[in-house]
Design a protein that fits this description.
There is one protein chain. With 250 residues, this protein is of the alpha/beta class. It has a single domain, classed as Rossmann fold. It has 7 helices and 9 strands; from the N terminus they run H-E-H-E-E-H-E-H-E-H-E-E-H-E-H-E. Helix 2 packs across helix 7, helix 3 runs parallel beside helix 4 and helix 4 packs parallel to helix 5. The N terminus is likely disordered. Bound molecules: NADP nicotinamide-adenine-dinucleotide phosphate.
Length: 250
């Protein structure tokens, strides 16, 4: 058996679409990929005008908005499909389970789980039509596999469990079309979504649960997202990669 070294430059995806590109992990992923010379298009609810790459307005929970944004990205790429999509848009809302009503549930599950399905399906339609396959990366969370007594959100945990099940299903369903589907499951990451760092007592408790004894950075998650989006991970599909400082193993 011979082993041919990979050539990242020749095989790197050129067209990357990132949702939630205006903040946190999405922004870090878009910036890292752009620094590698990839062509990046961002989607976000409220696009910033000063981003160094095009950012299109999109509500990922709305089917027509998602399709319009993917059509807009294809126009920017002269009709071509993205090589990779990293879906970072999401919400977390801290709420006790006993106070979680139908509207609270729908606002979180309806965005995190439905948004993942809508974005992945729009991506796959374009990739299948383009005939070259691609890579889709969804964002799960440590919350899919660990309960949180401090700042619980049952709806958020359930939505991320759905993302992990979806990842495996889509990897199997679209694998024959050359599409890989994976998820990244961050632990506690220092982004605008993370509220715990504003509460010193809760923060100290959180650090005790993380073997690395610190929060992760958006860039540390972005590096894994870019790896999964690249051809360097060409035989990786249907997996959930934890980026959590060891928290899931504790
Ligand atoms: P973030 O900084 O809050 O960024 C989320 C982005 O998604 C924001 O730009 C937000 O826009 C956008 N967004 C929200 N609702 C949207 C919608 N309906 N349509 C389109 N865009 C929407 O969060 P993050 O920390 O980077 O999180 C990224 C992903 O990682 C999420 O899926 C999150 O659940 C997951 N994650 C994060 C952590 C963590 O500790 N930070 C841990 C585990 C998993 P606006 O700002 O305009 O609302």
């Amino acid at each position: 058996m011979s082993v041919t070294p990979t050539d990242p430059g020749a095989r790197a995806p050129r067209r990357l679409l990132v949702t939630g590109a205006g903040s946190g992990i999405g922004r870090a992923t878009a910036e890292l990929a752009r620094g590698l010379g990839w062509s990046v298009v961002g989607l976000d609810l409220r696009p910033a005008e000063d981003a160094p790459y095009p950012v299109l307005a999109c509500d990922v929970s709305d089917e027509r908005s998602v399709q319009a944004a993917f059509d807009g990205a294809a126009r920017l790429w002269e009709g071509r499909a993205p090589d990779a999509v990293v879906h970072c848009a999401g919400v977390y809302r801290f709420r006790a389970a006993t106070s979680t009503g139908a509207a609270d549930w729908d606002s979180v599950v309806g965005l995190n789980a439905r948004g993942s399905m809508l974005v992945a399906a729009a991506a796959a339609r374009q990739m299948i039509a383009g005939g070259a396959g691609g890579s889709i990366t969804l964002l799960s969370s440590i919350a899919a596999v660990r309960g949180d007594a401090g700042e619980p959100s049952a709806a958020y945990s359930a939505s991320k469990g759905a993302v992990e099940a979806l990842t495996r299903q889509l990897a199997v369903e679209w694998g024959p079309d050359g599409i890989r589907c994976n998820a990244v499951a961050p632990g506690v990451i220092d982004t605008p979504m993370t509220t715990v760092s504003g509460n010193p007592e809760a923060f100290a408790q959180v650090l005790q649960r993380i073997p690395a004894r610190r929060l992760g950075s958006a860039e540390e998650v972005a590096r894994v997202c870019v790896f999964l989006a690249s051809e360097e991970s060409s035989y990786v599909s249907g997996v959930v990669v934890a980026v959590d400082g060891g928290q899931g193993a504790a």
